[in-house]
Amino acid sequence: MTRIVAGTAGGRRLTVPQGATRPTSERVREALFSRLEHQGVVDGARVLDLYAGSGALGLEAASRGAVAVTLVDSAKPAAAACRRNAATLGLRQVEVHATTVRSYLAGTPTTAYDLVLIDPPYDVEEETLDELLGLLVPWLAPGAVVVVERSRRSPEPTWPDGLEASDDRRYGDTTLWFASTT
């Protein structure tokens, strides 16, 4: 069972699409958002959740006070689950884009995001992730925070100009890499 950890929708269940979706564990989400809230990053933020799956990360941010959340996933079942979850939770500040991450980021930036959460499938190659991080930079607000979730066995992402690594945290088989705009 996947549920929202805290905030206005805390404790409510999420629909998880069938298939290859790997929702971020509740333990990891709780630790991640505790850290981000301590840093004052979530409340009032504009959030981008790439490879959204069920939308758990972006919806958690919306539940905790983000003013705008964009969920991006190319899989139709995932996008449908994101829409259903946002509607069921009454989180009107959430919009869903059923497109590839590359296509979304290749577009003209329409929002300067304060927080970006990237949880690609573990089989996304490092070179692809590096390319996407480069495409992401023009979409970032000054002082933005980017979090990349990967397998513990994955190397640290190659951060492009405009992003500087700040920390990493390990939780079981999951590593969270943090960077911020320079």
From TrEMBL:
Q: Does the keyword Ion transport apply?
A: no
Q: What is its EC number?
A: 2.1.1.171
Q: Which GO terms describe its molecular function?
A: 16S rRNA (guanine(966)-N(2))-methyltransferase activity
> Per UniProt, which keywords does this protein have?
Methyltransferase, Transferase
Reading the lineage from the top rank, the first entry is Bacteria
Enzyme class at the top of the EC tree: transferase
In terms of InterPro entries, this protein maps to: DNA_methylase_N6_adenine_CS, RNA_MeTrfase_RsmD, SAM-dependent_MTases_sf
Which intervals of the chain are annotated as region Disordered? Answer: 1-25
Entries under PANTHER family matching the protein: METHYLTRANSFERASE (PTHR43542:SF1)
What NCBIfam families does this protein map onto?
A: 16S rRNA (guanine(966)-N(2))-methyltransferase RsmD
What protein name applies here? Answer: 16S rRNA (Guanine(966)-N(2))-methyltransferase RsmD
Give the source species. Georgenia wutianyii
Question: Which taxonomic lineage does the organism of this UniProt entry have?
Answer: Bacteria, Bacillati, Actinomycetota, Actinomycetes, Micrococcales
